[in-house]
Amino acid sequence: MSIDIDTARRVAHLARIAVAEDDLPALAQQLSGILTFMEQLNEVDVSGVEPMTSVTPMRLKRRADVVTDGGYPDRILSNAPDAREGFFAVPKVVE
């Protein structure tokens, strides 16, 4: 797949990256190279390969899923620019 300069400009805009007009051809070429590599990866047969989170087999540590207030709500709210009645106060955004 080949990326043209207009597509590279759009990708840079969407990524919020400032790219000079002179650098757009190089960016387009780099993006095309990345997509070519991804197409090569699609050709690899991965049937029968289990997904893994690490190269060493180990279980991830888990904690109990318990809802708490953090144990120190006053310290947390002290960082807020505006807190009222034990909650963060934010400006109204919906009329």
Structure description:
- It holds the Pfam family GatC.
- It catalyses: L-glutamyl-tRNA(Gln) + L-glutamine + ATP + H2O = L-glutaminyl-tRNA(Gln) + L-glutamate + ADP + phosphate + H(+); L-aspartyl-tRNA(Asn) + L-glutamine + ATP + H2O = L-asparaginyl-tRNA(Asn) + L-glutamate + ADP + phosphate + 2 H(+).
- One of its GO terms (molecular function) is asparaginyl-tRNA synthase (glutamine-hydrolyzing) activity.
- By secondary structure, the chain is mainly α.
- It has a domain of 38 residues.
- 36% of the residues lie in helices and 4% in strands.
- It has a two-stranded antiparallel ribbon.
- A hairpin with a 2-residue loop joins strand 1 and strand 2.
Topology:
Elements: H1 5-14, H2 24-42, H3 73-77, E1 83-84, E2 87-88
Antiparallel strand pairs: 1-2
Helix pairs in contact: 1-2
Structural descriptors:
mainly alpha, two-stranded antiparallel sheet, transferase activity, ligase
**Which strand order do you get reading across the main beta sheet?**
1-2
Question: Which of globular, elongated, flat, extended, rod-shaped describes the shape?
Answer: flat
Determine the strand fraction and express it as a percent band. under 5%
Radius of gyration (CA) equals: 24 Å
Low-confidence stretches at least 5 residues in length (pLDDT < 50)? Answer: none
Annotation field: number of helices: 3
**Secondary structural class:** mainly alpha
What is the total tally of β strands? 2
Distance linking N and C termini: 46 Å
Percent range of helical residues: 25-40%
Order of helices and strands: HHHEE
Largest sheet: 2 strands, antiparallel
Mean pLDDT: 89
